[in-house]
Design goal:
The complex is a heterodimer. By secondary structure, chain A is mainly alpha-helical. Chain A has four helices and no strands. By secondary structure, chain B is mainly alpha-helical. Chain B has three domains: about 35 residues; about 45 residues, no CATH class; about 50 residues, no CATH class. Chain B is about 50% helix and about 0% strand. In chain B, helix 3 packs across helix 4. The longest helix of chain B has 28 residues. In chain B, about 25% of the residues are buried. Classes of the chains: A mainly alpha, B mainly alpha.
């Protein structure tokens, strides 16, 4: 679901930055880079989580990704800390909700099809 | 950066004469063929193939370093038009996610579908854990 919703995340970033005359292609690339990092971080965290006493390390994933998103938004679009924090929370939150919704939808669809 | 090329003053494909020195003409401005004679000993071609791999390697190492250590730099560079020095964004994304799903399905004998469910669960901080049981069978 994270994989499928990657362009949608780019569109969310676009919606929050189009007033500054940023193009969709830029935010799409932003999304590609962000998700590249996300999958890289998830790979490392999930592999670390396989080590018995390091299992709780996977809890860090959303925190790491949120911090990374904040730094990325701030570095690329250069807005104030408060504004960037606000956008990080809204964009990140909407993305999590959309992933969960799509998950629920496909789960529901598979139950119906069954 | 120095790739060893066997260059000439005239394009071997279309015959156009280069207005700059052969060392500076990497591609023909008229037809786009690389200014590089392939009619050379095979060992040179093999050496070149090895070089291509290492060339790609420095590019990917540079990209990975920027991705992890300098968040946002890759995107800024892309917007500014500095693209050739980094791995293409879509290729980076597909390669890394491919690696992720491959490793995950190998490491625990799960299917790719289960791996994706686990990825979503981890990425969203357990948000979808309530729906987890629905399609478990």
């Amino acid at each position: 679901m994270v994989f499928v919703l990657m362009p949608f995340f780019g569109y969310l970033v676009y919606l929050f930055h189009r007033k500054q005359h940023h193009r969709f292609i830029g935010t799409l690339v932003f999304s590609l880079h962000f998700h590249s990092f996300a999958f890289l971080a998830l790979t490392l965290l999930l592999l670390l989580g396989r080590v018995p006493f390091l299992a709780p390390v996977t809890i860090l994933a959303p925190i790491v990704l949120a911090i990374y998103l904040f730094i990325c938004l701030r570095s690329v679009y250069g807005q104030s800390r408060i504004s960037t924090l606000f956008k990080t929370i809204i964009i990140g939150g909407l993305h999590v909700v959309s992933v969960a919704l799509l998950f629920l939808l496909t789960a529901f669809a598979s139950v119906v099809a069954f | 950066m120095g790739k060893k090329r066997f260059k000439s003053q005239r394009c071997l494909n279309c015959g156009a004469e280069f207005s700059v020195k052969p060392e500076l003409a990497s591609f023909c401005p008229a037809c786009g063929q690389e200014n590089h004679d392939l009619n050379i000993p095979l060992r040179h071609l093999l050496a070149e193939a090895v070089e291509t791999v290492f060339h790609f390697d420095t590019k990917s190492i540079r990209t990975l370093q920027a991705l992890v250590l300098k968040p946002g730099l890759l995107t800024s560079e892309f917007i500014r038009g500095r693209r050739a020095r980094y791995v293409t964004p879509i290729r980076l994304y597909i390669f890394i996610s491919f690696l992720f799903f491959l490793l995950l399905s190998f490491s625990s004998g799960r299917t790719v579908e289960r791996a994706e469910v686990e990825a979503d669960r981890t990425a969203t901080g357990g948000f979808s854990i309530t729906f987890y049981g629905i399609n478990s069978n």
